[in-house]
Amino acid sequence: MPGSQHTIATRLAGLIADLERHGTETSVGLRQLVDSGARHVAGCQYAGITLADESKIVTNVVATHRYPIILDSIQNRYGEGPCLEPGWQHHMMHVEDLSVDRRWPRYQRHALAHTPIRSILSYELSVDRTSMAALNFYADHPHAFSGESLELGGVFATHVALAWSMMRREDQFRSALASRDIIGQAKGVIMERFNLDAVEAFELLSRLSQKSNTKLIEIARSLIDSEHPLKSPRRTERGA
């Protein structure tokens, strides 16, 4: 790896370590990485991350400018474009001049009409089995990306994929902790109102979840928010 790429890779590793250490929110962390990519990939003016699910619904995850968001909207509307292209070469898609690239005619027409972008460099990011994502670099003029740009873009894509996976796990962990606390509070309410122990209270919550086909965490939230019918016995008792 050339010296400059090695330096940038080292900085990226340090940035990812900082994101993990501080428990950075996923959208904030991805924005920092994408901003860094836009600054360091030669020829790049804008950057963003695109997410497409198995039904080809395309959304923009993060972007440094409104143009990537517009292009993702065009891909979503017409169901075609670089990020929906099945023929990825080594997990990369390079559009050297959008004005002459005929692979996606509707995408091309509207992209040229609504943005000045002419060069696109996309890297496939593996998220899960039901969706795919791409890290994209854009430029206003054709043939903006050199061979070095392609290599450095791949370095960023590798680090972004790793960081995204890490931050998603952190988000899931924080969500699990929050859910555990809410369910614990709901159990406490049931134990106090119905004179049940912790196991019986949890079993009651579980039965309500199964019978109503509602997630356990939603039942717990409703109870805590004083909207669940389990409160009715107490009202009846006071009115008696």
TrEMBL record:
Record carries keyword Transcription: yes
GO molecular-function terms, A-Z: kinase activity; RNA binding
InterPro entries: ANTAR, CheY-like_superfamily, GAF, GAF-like_dom_sf, GAF_ANTAR, WH-like_DNA-bd_sf
Protein name in UniProt: GAF and ANTAR domain-containing protein
Pfam family, one: GAF_2
Keywords on record: Kinase, Transcription, Transcription regulation, Transferase
Statement: the UniProt record of this protein carries the keyword DNA damage: no
